[in-house]
What does this fold into?
Amino acid sequence: MVFKNFRFQVTLRILLLMGGITLLAWCLVHENYLRSVYICAGVVAMVLEFIWYVDRFNRDVRSFMVSLLQRDFTTRFQSGGRSKSFDELYAMLNRISEVFKNISAEKEMQYRYLEMLVEHMRVGILSMDGEGRIHLANQALKELLGKEVILNLKSLESLDPLLLHTIKEIRSGETRLVKLRVQNELLQLSIHASEFKLEDRYHKLVSMQNIRNELDAREMEAWQKLIRVLTHEIMNSVSPVISLSETMHGLVAGHRDTLKGDRDLYNTLDKGLEAIKIRSQGLYQFTQSYRKLTGIPKLSLQQTNLRDIIERVRTLMESKIRERGIALQVSNADIEVAVDPDLMEHVLINLLLNAIDAVEDTDNALISIRGFRDAKGNVTLSVRDNGEGMDDATAEKIFIPFFTTRKQGSGIGLALTKQILQLHQADIHFTSERGKGTEFVIAL
It folds into this structure.
C-alpha cells in the first residue's frame, strides 16, 4: 500500500510536470511571453519539489539501512503529517526496526544464557580460532590454571610449554593427559578437544579437568586389592611355618639331654629353628602392618575445632620432639570443621613423624604446624620442616605404598594419610626444595 501511494504521488507529479511543460510550449508557440514566464517558474518549482520528494524518500531509506548495518534500532521516523504515503512508509520502517531490535535482544539473551552456562560449569573451557586468538576462557579454567586473564595461547607458555604444545596439537575427539604444577600443586589434566567451522571460520573448543583425585582413588583401590591378595597368601604360608618352627624348637629343647652327645648338632638345630621362628614372626608382623591400608574404619564425622586436634597431637608428640632437640612452632586458628577427629589426629601424627625424620641431621631443626583459612576460604592445615628436602625422583613416589626413605619406615604412613584424606574428600599436596625443607598442606 505504501509503495502504491508513493507510485501514485510520483505519477501525479510527473503528469502535472508534463502538463506544465505542454502549457509552456503552447504559450511560447502563441508568443504569450509574459504568461510563459509564470508557467516556466511554476514548472521549475514542480521539478524542484519532485526532486525533493524523491530524494527525501531515498534519504530516509538510506538512513534506515545504515541504522540496520550499525545495529542501531533506536532510530524512529516521523512524517510530520506531510502525506499519508509517508506516514505508512515510516510506520513500516519503524515496524521493521522493532522486529530487528527484538531479534537482536533475543540473540543477546541467548548469548548471555550460554555465557552463564559456560561460566557455571566446573570444567575448564577454552575456545580459540585458527590464529590462536582466545575467544572464551571460563572462570573454572582461570582458577584451574591460576591465571586471571588469558588473552592468547602464548600466555599459557609461562605455565608449561608441554601444555601449550598439547592444546595446539590435540585433534577433534582426542583426549590427552598432562601433568602440570600450578602454585605448587600437582594437577593431572584430562584435555579433550572438538574442532568445527562456523561461517567458514575454524574454531577449536578445548575442555580441561583435573582428574588427580580420581586417579589417586583408583590407584589406591588397586593397591588395596593387591595388598589383600598378598597378605592373604603370605599369612596362609607364614602361619604354618611359625607354628611348625615353634613346635620343632620346643622338641629340640625338650630333647636336650638326648642330644648331649652331639653338641654341634644340637646348637645348629636350636639356632636354625630359632632363626626360622624369628624371621617368620617378623614377616607376620610386616604383613599385618600392611593390612592397615585395607582396614581403615568408616568415617565418624563430627563438628570439631581444628585447634583442639592440633593441641592434642602437640601434647602427644612434644616430648619426642623435645628429646631430639627440635623446635616446634604452632599457629592455631579457631576454626570449626566436620572431620573424624581420631583419623585426622592419625594424619597429623604421620606428617609429624616424617618431619622429625627429615630434620634428623639438620642444625637448628624446626617444625611448624599451622591451621588457617586460605585465600579461597578453605580450612587448611600445614606441616613444614627445614630439613634437607626431597629430589624430584623421591617426590614422585612418596604417596606410593611400601615406598620409604626412612631407615625403619614401613612405607605406609603417607599412603594411609592420603587414603584417610580421600575419605574426607580433602586434598593434600606438598612443596619441597633441596636444602630448604618440605611443607605438606591439607585442604579440608
